[in-house]
Specification:
By secondary structure, the chain is an alpha/beta fold. It has 2 domains: 57 residues, no CATH class; 129 residues, TIM Barrel (Alpha-Beta Barrel), CATH 3.20.20. Helix content is 34%, strand content 13%. Strands 1-2-3-4-7 form a 5-stranded parallel sheet. The protein has a two-stranded antiparallel ribbon with strand order 5-6. Helix 3 links the parallel strand 3 and strand 4. Helix 1 packs across helix 2. It is globular and about 45 Å long.
Amino acid sequence: MRCSRRCARCWTRTRSTRPTYGPAASGGVLLRQQRYDLGTWAAIRAAVDPEHRSLWIEEGVDVAPLSVFDGHHLYSVTWNPPTDLAYTAAKFARRVRDQAARLGTLKVYVATVMPGYDDRKTGRGNAFAVSREDGAYYERSWRAAIGSAPDWIIVTSFNECRKDLHRAEPGLREPISRVDRGLVRRLP
């Protein structure tokens, strides 16, 4: 945990304050992966952000960590077997808002957008792929996210080198289409 505290402290002092993370909090935004239990995260936050100057967003299908974190997002909305993107976005928006009401405080719901998915190069036994469908999957993902009335929207893909096509930028096998490039301008 000492390394986690050091990393989180470094992050809150450097990267999180960059303007590219937005003005949402004076200390920036930290996105949590499911690496530690909730008690460990509470201790890390108490050590590196005792004044709660940063927004801490947790990730996963369990919204119970909202007792420590300020918001929730799903790293991936592309599952196997597939689910309806709009249903999933609405379901988690409702779960976050219900948990916030139980806790008696406001929480941030962050909807997730994905251009497609391919984790077959990870070596996982249950790896799978979902095609971009020439931008149609990306568009459905955006519409589902917008339809869930989120506080924020995040695009999961940019740092997924091992997962090949799970990127919004051009790839070798399936280059970004003009549909992908123009999508955001067309959506309401």
